[in-house]
Amino acid sequence: MKKFWILFLICGVSFSQEFNKVDSNGKKDGVWKGTYETSKRPRYEGTFSHGKETGVFKFFDDTKKGDVIATRDFTANDGSSYTIFYDQNKNKVSEGKEIGKAREGEWRYYHKASKIVMTLENYKNGKLEGKRSVFYPDAKIAEEMTYKNGSKEGIYKKYGQNAILLEQSTYKDNVYNGDAIFYDSEGIMASKGKFLNGKKVGMWQFYAKGKLTKEVNMSDPKSNYQADSKPKME
Fold first, then answer.
1. Could you tell me how far CA 167 lies from the centroid of its own chain?
2. Which pTM value belongs to this model?
């Protein structure tokens, strides 16, 4: 019996040495398994080749069940990974390319428990860059915006679930800046004017069922001109 336990312990030690090894330079090599600091449950599992991630890494939630909550695929072998996040029911939450921990290129986000894309984003060096689109659960467009270096820049469009345009405005450095038009639920213009650094400026026009009803000089809020009033005589 004593010999049996000695053999068992030796086998156990040998098994434990089959992962979390380093090479002669002290770099991770072979299969590595990480654990959560407090619970000691499995946190991730993947393979290194002399300090470099290879193949597919799996990441687990901190529960007894240990569901896979993310995967990172390094098979491109160019320093990037294709990352996918999952919910508890194994549905995709989001997916896209990462370089290190920074997102790069197109990322997709999905509606809850659905294969329908909720948001399409583009990244450069971890910051939003280029077109960003948001969709309703029926895949119809809800919003369109362009980003530059992480900030909103350019034309923004917002749509109702019936695909009717509700807003077309202009952004610069992440705030309203420039021409803006707002529409009612039927797609009829409700107001239009200009923004400067996030604030309404100049003459704004307001409409009811397509008819101009009021003009307000937003640079001088005390000024309130009715559309049907006669112009002042000099």
1. 22
2. 0.84
